[in-house]
User: Fold this.
Amino acid sequence: MLILSLILISWLVFAQSCMRFRTADSKAIASFGAKGIVLTAHTAQMQGHHVHYVQTGADSLPTLYFVHGTPGSWNAFEPYLRDSLLRSRFRMISIDRPGFGYSDFGDAYPLPVQSKIMGPVLLQTKNNRPSILVGHSLGGPMILQLAIDYPSLADQLVIISGSIDPAAEKPEKWRPVLYKTFLNWLVPGAMRQSNKELWYLKTDLVEQAPLLKDIHCPVYFIHGRQDTWVPPMNVAYGERMLTGAARLDTLWLDGNHFIPWSKFTSIRDLLLQLPTQQ
Assistant:
């Protein structure tokens, strides 16, 4: 019994401190600097919340805004921020969604609430040049929500492996049992808020559906043919629902849900080809 108690206590301590999926600003800035890349870190306050993001690239360039999935933080897109070709073409901003990274780590919010926290901060960073929102996985419906709530924010959307179709979401009724009970303490790091927001997502997508027609900017889908976590049916849903979009294009890649990293070059090249003339 004593051994079991020690194991449980050890796991609780471990669960509190591990799997946070974030990098301290000082460490990230030093790492980028070692390669001659200037990375700046910022924390803005909005409606009593802290919103953390990093930036690289010249302020005079069009902007790529990166929004990570769940769990995660800004450094999910670190390879893109480091890429010399992208930095020659874009200013890049990668954000910690509310509850993740250094944006008040530890809680979880529905997509509309996250949008209200992040949107005004992103608007404040606009530089009168074209801006493109790029979202991976849960970051896909997140950038759709931002485009709905703040139509002037993005000139184009790029949805990578986006979980946007309510019908593709499994019931997973165990999720609230997990986060509403003492079992939540056994879940490590950022997996806690991830579990909770994935439960919110099932309702969020249903509520978002009738608003998708109000998105008018071009939307580009990038999806892996072998993605079993977020199946390809999500792309068909987007093509069917985004009736007001100025343009809909899809890049299919051989790969699974992790194509932002396994197919970096293909995705990088698509971003470089996006029109950025005002």
About this structure: The two ends are 68 Å apart (CA to CA).
